[in-house]
Amino acid sequence: MTSNRSHISDVLNRSRSRTSSEGNRQAMQDEDYLTMLKKTPMQHINSELLNYPLQRAFSQPVTKTACVIQDPSSQRLHWTSPPLHIMVIRKPGISTLPEFREIINELLRRRLYVYIEDNEHTHLPFTTDEILKKYGENCIAFDEENDLDKIDLIVCLGGDGTLLHVSSLFQDSCPPILSFSMGSLGFLTPFDYKNHQKVLDEVLAGNVAVLLRTRLKCSIIKYRDPESLEDTESSTPKTKSTESTEPSTRNSLSPDLFPDDKISHLALNEVVIDRGPNSYLSNLDLYINDSYITKVQGDGLIISTPTGSTAYAMAAGASMIHPNVPCLLICPICPHSLSFRPIVIPAGIELQVKVSEDTRLTAWLSVDGRNRHELHHKDTVRITTSVYPVPAICRFDQLGDWFESLAGILHWNVRKSQAAFNDTDIHDKEDDSSDTPALSPTNSKLNNDSDNDNTNENNMENKML
Fold first, then answer.
1. 3-class SS at 459?
2. What's the pLDDT tens digit per position in 200-250?
3. What angle do CA 272, 275, 278 make, to 5 degrees?
4. Where is the composition biased (Polar residues) (predicted)?
5. CB distance 122 to 132 below 8 Å
6. Where are the domains of the chain?
7. DSSP assignment string, 73-87
């Protein structure tokens, strides 16, 4: 056994001292020798010595991988050409009307083309205002069909709801948005209107921080009964065009599902599927990339963006997520299960929410609190991350604006600070502790026993009397 161990040590010494040129040849010799040693009873071989040359023989150089994570503060707005077409959208009502007129006049003085919604022309004094008289032809009514690609910048006067309205108008590529806080909350609108001239100068010059807020693409796929479909097909005369286009209308999820391109929305906050006015539980089947995940039984389900994590999802108990995090948030609404908690999944996958076959009534879908649609049995909703984010111009930077909104608007972790000890309090506490004698458990027990004995004696005397 001694000679065997010394021979293995010689193999180890050779393997440690070999040069790179003879590495492969020596490794093969060590492997052959170790194959022979494996036939030897294991009690005669040191396992540590056996594994070392075997690892050296089969080890290969490991390729190191590195992941480059982009710094959110590197996202800046740079104009390739000076912006000329500016759209101004305001919160409805008279509260924002003075600022609305003022900022339009400011933009017209700069010889810019200003687009406003069609119903806003009646609120502008074209006949009495000097600026509107002179540059009124540059104030244009916005046409949703023809002017979407013309807008270079959007100025938003209002709160979070006004920004959601802007997102609903631009259901494709969205221009940068400059939001002035004039609403009731203003979590997504960081700028104060008092400094609007300075802010406009900086934004029109470019090189300002911008936050790309991801959106969700939501598509509704209606279920059609195959029997009724066959009746419709039999009653409709077939032509060459219908025969060629019919197979492409069916959806890959199920042969009975037909996509409706008209029912498609982009959501900045969330997509909500709930029970609506029905009194029964929602019964939904959740799929991720065509794989069944779970059944949702409760009031409904919230599929949220990171931007929407501080909205409805936060009220339903979900975590708050910074808008730069590429993910989707799945949050149940009042689930009838103690273990159904909100979860975060990576962006880029496709969610499918299907109304279960055994559900009692229909479900209802809403996108950012609007665009309500009724979902019937076996209808499916497909949700994925859109390729068209909302570029929101930052006041400070991507992190500073978010944390300032958390603290200033949602009062995140706001608490009265605990008072520190001063010298007087410390000395008083030490004096109080020194004046009060400490009772050990034994002494305390003895005192209690003596008190009990005195009580028993008094009771005996009272009975004798």
1. helix
2. 999 999 989 999 999 999 999 998 776 655 554 555 554 443 333 333 334
3. 155
4. 1-27
5. no
6. 2-58, 75-213, 216-226+251-386
7. GG-EE--SS---EEE
Candidates 391, 413, 399; CA nearest to 178 is: 391
Using CA atoms, how far apart are residues 387 and 384, in angstroms rounded to an integer?
9
Which structure tokens are listed for 204?
Answer: 């029109």
Rounded to an integer, what distance in angstroms lies between the CA atom of residue 159 and that of residue 94?
Answer: 14
Q: How far apart are CA 321 and CA 342, in angstroms?
A: 12
C-beta separation of 253 from 291 below 8 A: no
Q: What angle do CA 460, 463, 465 make, to 5 degrees?
A: 110
CA of residue 338 relative to chain centroid, distance: 23
CA-to-CA separations, 265 to 131, 169, 260, in angstroms, rounded: 39, 10, 12
CATH number of 75-213: 3.40.50.10330
Query: Would you say 410 and 310 are in contact if contact means Cβ atoms under 8 Å apart?
Result: yes
216-226+251-386, what's its fold? Tumour Suppressor Smad4 (2.60.200)
Rounded-to-integer distance, Cα 106 and Cα 128, Å: 16
pLDDT in tens, 5-58: 444 444 444 444 444 445 555 555 555 555 554 554 544 444 444 444 444 444
Is this model's pTM higher than 0.90 or not? Answer: no
